[in-house]
What we know:
This protein has about 130 residues and is mainly alpha-helical. It has helices at about 5-15, 20-25, 35-45, 55-80, and strands at about 110-115, 120-125.
Amino acid sequence: MRNISYLSQQLKNKKAKNIKAFLIDQRIVRGIGNAYADEILWESRISPESLCGKIPDDAVNTLFNAIKVVLKEATEQLEEVKPDLIKGEYREFLKVHHPQKKVSPTGQLIHCKKIASKKTYYTDDQQCYN
Length: 130
């Protein structure tokens, strides 16, 4: 992610797209896959069903910061763990994108729904902008 201006402009360009599909679109944002998109959206408290063009500027700032925080934490976690101990796509350090976890660190029930053709994990405390 280049900078906040780039993110804001791309969100405006894709205003009818949902934010989950936006984050996993490698033509727009490279390197964010399904699991990290869920983690970023949870960290920023934005619903995966939010429309890009409806997300207010303050939430875009929060989203930008969440991208940096989540990817930095993931990199640090993966550097600490031996690669052979990471099983499949589910990593124990993920806060919501994990089929065995039922409750988020904030005590919210974790839901799973197909969004953007992907299993998406989220909680009710994530704001939906539509």
